[in-house]
Amino acid sequence: MSTHPQYISYIDRTREYYAALGYPKPYVWSHYEDVPFAPLLKPLSESRVGLVTTASPLRRAEDKRPKTVWSGETATPPEALYTDDLAWDRDNTHTQDVESFLPIRHLQRFVDETRVGSLAPRFHGVPTDYSQRRTIERDAPQLLDRCREDGVDVALLVPL
Fold it and tell me: If I label 96, which of 81, 85, 88, 115 is the partner at 20 to 30 A Cα–Cα?
């Protein structure tokens, strides 16, 4: 019988990580009494789906990650996105399959099969700067505005 835990507590690990970095206060997880989600108002087969990712556009090494919400065209999905500065399990996976975190082609098949009404004309990327305040005050409203401009009924959030 193994003495190792059967799971890894992401919350405990994150608190320990931030403490080890010398932050004076423990990491505080977002918590909402009123969850900002709602039931679908119509069937998925009649809904327009929008995609949101945490990856970034490809860039040169000296360029910085976008600090605000950015968008791309779903009609011409990117062959690659920049992921090297994000945290992911590099020992057991890779990010060469863009469809694994930006499934545009897969969703388009669902549209063709009438499982989804339509795909929004744009997908959106959000910055990952770990600031709850900036996410709530700046990024979320920008993302909501763009989704509304695209007539999105449901947003699929696909973090890397």
Answer: 115
Backbone angles phi, psi at 119, to 5 degrees: -105, 135
Where b means 16+ CB within 10 Å and e means fewer, 17-33 reads: ebeeeeeeeeeeeeeee
Side chain identity at residue 149, one-letter code:
E
Closest listed residue to residue 127, CA positions, set 156, 96, 77, 85: 85
Full pLDDT tens readout for the chain, 160 residues: 566 667 778 788 888 888 898 888 887 777 767 766 788 899 999 999 999 998 888 765 556 666 789 999 999 998 888 777 777 777 777 778 888 889 999 999 999 999 999 999 999 999 877 778 888 889 989 999 999 999 999 999 988 7
Q: What are phi and psi of 75, to 5 degrees?
A: -65, -25
